[in-house]
Design goal:
Number of domains: 4
Strand content: 15-25%
CATH superfamily of the largest domain: P-loop containing nucleotide triphosphate hydrolases
Radius of gyration: 29 Å
Shape: elongated
CATH topology of the largest domain: Rossmann fold
CATH architecture of the largest domain: 3-Layer(aba) Sandwich
Largest sheet: 7 strands, parallel
Helix content: 25-40%
CATH class of the largest domain: Alpha Beta
Structural class: alpha/beta
Number of strands: 23
Length: about 500
């Protein structure tokens, strides 16, 4: 590894900063991996420095001596300051996540995992998502690798804990998201079990749209001295969502929906149904009329649900038909229109549904189809919101509106930019042939890449070693240069197939 010194010498300024930090810790804090010891017989006071194993910066040779760039820098820096450094190996508990996030649905777990990943990508933050519907063996292998934050549904998280795969000893933060929905879905016992297993001294953060009795009981039992934080609504701020209710005859409800869609002609729309059966029926009817759409509900295969959500986010189709549970909490950008095909059966549900539109300063519109038998629920919603909703008859669309709707249906939509694209600019993800089966190690990848002229450790992001493949992220816009050089460089004595990979 000594051959890499020339190529990494340009990073010495950064490494000196690390040495200065260690010195500060030793003098001011008396800890943080550095300790000072008195030795009467030695010419210089001794400093013991805890070192991690990360070639070519710090590593141990066969005789137990420490070598590497960091070692040389520390020796020189401390000797100039009148100290003789010695080195001890530190065993870091890399497989102990520090935070656990519980989500009520698989889609939300994936969404939150992706958001945290994008935010912490440049800091090599690893945020696996664990949930049912996917093989648990694969998720177990992922968890056993270094993970900083784990996001998952309560059932699968509890399963991994019982299998002694997910260890909670390092958890400092527990986040319970969409707590009201989670408890409504029957996850109360799993949440209680997880909270009871947490180490003492950790923090619990609970987020809920409503503080009903079940949520309050959970807070009272497991969150001593809890602080309640609630945003205060601006009385002067008008809601960004215009709402209208159309009278509906059950026999003509589908025709009413089509008229509504033609009149509104949205760029992006969510249509809510009360049951999975109705979601399926509505999908088939709209497709039969050549109105392209997708659907999500609880009985779908997990891969299909995630695929549908991703396609809708990317602009693959304009209309998404969904049940309440499947769509709750999922963040979609710029939903122009929400249609309540089946009027919601609860006051809070109505608010959650229409809240899919009019987000982030944008204006939105919500249309509800109301049958005579649902008027009582309408009055409950009005009382809950403190305002009357306009109930009227849907007008017939004219020829111009009809033509505009079908023209938009035939238009090919430009794909939307992926979320996190701005944060991830300059990052290239490479796949390398070879993984655990061929005994690939992170140090093998780092050593080879750092031997490329102009590439240092600061240009290497997350390394993910799997059974037969290894994924590595190259930062700072240097991905193409690394890709080209790896076509002719050996890793563990072999030329490897290297290509650009998608996450």
């Amino acid at each position: 590894m000594r051959k890499n010194r020339k190529n990494t010498s340009r990073t010495w300024g950064n490494r000196i900063c690390i040495a200065a930090f260690l010195l500060t810790c030793s003098l001011m804090l008396g800890g943080c991996g550095v300790k000072k010891e008195k030795e009467a017989d030695s010419e210089l006071p001794k400093i013991v420095i805890g070192m991690d194993y990360f070639e070519p910066y710090s590593y141990q040779v066969s005789n137990g001596e420490y070598k590497g760039i960091d070692v040389e820098l520390a020796e020189e820096a401390f000797q100039r300051l009148g100290y003789q450094p010695e080195f001890e190996k530190i065993v870091w508990e890399e497989n102990l996540p520090q935070a656990l996030v519980l989500e009520p649905s698989r889609e939300l777990a994936v969404q939150v995992s992706n958001e945290l990943f994008h935010i912490g990508r440049r800091k090599r933050l690893k945020v696996p998502a664990v949930f049912g519907g996917f093989p648990i063996d694969k998720q177990m292998r992922t968890i056993k690798q270094k993970s900083h934050i784990v996001v998952g549904t309560p059932g699968r998280v509890m399963d991994l804990i019982q299998r002694e795969c997910l260890k909670l000893a390092g958890i400092r933060y527990l986040v319970i998201d969409e707590a009201d929905l989670m408890l409504d879905m029957g996850f109360l016992e799993e949440v209680k079990q997880i909270m009871a297993l947490l180490p003492k001294g950790g923090r619990v953060l609970l987020f809920s749209a409503t503080l009903d009795e079940k949520v309050r009981l959970l807070v009272d039992e497991y969150m001593a001295d809890a602080v309640m934080i609630a945003p205060e609504p601006d009385a002067e701020e008008e809601p960004a969502i215009s709402q209208v209710v159309y009278r509906a005859d059950p026999e003509e409800k589908y025709d009413l929906l089509k008229r509504t869609l033609i009149l509104e002609n949205p760029e992006s729309c969510m249509i809510f149904c009360g049951t999975r059966e109705m979601v399926n029926v509505l999908l088939q009817k709209l497709k039969r009329d050549r109105i392209f759409c997708g659907m999500i509900h609880g009985e779908m295969e997990q891969r299909e649900r995630l695929k549908t959500v991703d396609a809708f986010r990317r602009g693959g189709f304009r209309f998404l038909i969904a049940t309440d549970v499947a769509a709750r909490g999922i963040d979609f950008d710029k939903i122009d229109l929400v249609v309540n095909y089946d009027f919601p059966g609860g006051r809070e549900t109505y608010v959650h549904r229409i809240g899919r539109t009019g987000r982030n300063g944008e204006n939105g519109r919500a249309v509800s189809l109301l049958c005579e038998s649902e008027e009582r629920m309408l009055h409950m919603v009005e009382a809950y919101m403190g305002r009357e909703l306009s109930v009227t008859t849907c007008p017939e669309p004219d020829e111009e509106a009809t033509k505009a709707f079908w023209t938009r249906q035939r238009e090919r939509r430009a794909p939307k930019a992926q979320k996190g694209a701005a944060l991830n600019a300059g990052i290239t993800r490479l796949s390398i042939g070879g993984g655990r089966k061929s005994k690939m190690r992170a140090v093998d990848i780092v050593g080879t890449i750092c031997s490329i002229d102009g590439i240092g450790a600061e240009d290497i992001g997350i390394i993910d070693i799997r059974e037969s493949l290894t994924y590595v992220e190259i930062l700072n816009g240097k991905g193409q240069a690394v890709l080209e050089k790896l076509q002719e460089k050996t890793i563990k004595g072999r030329l490897r197939k290297v290509r650009i990979a998608r996450r």
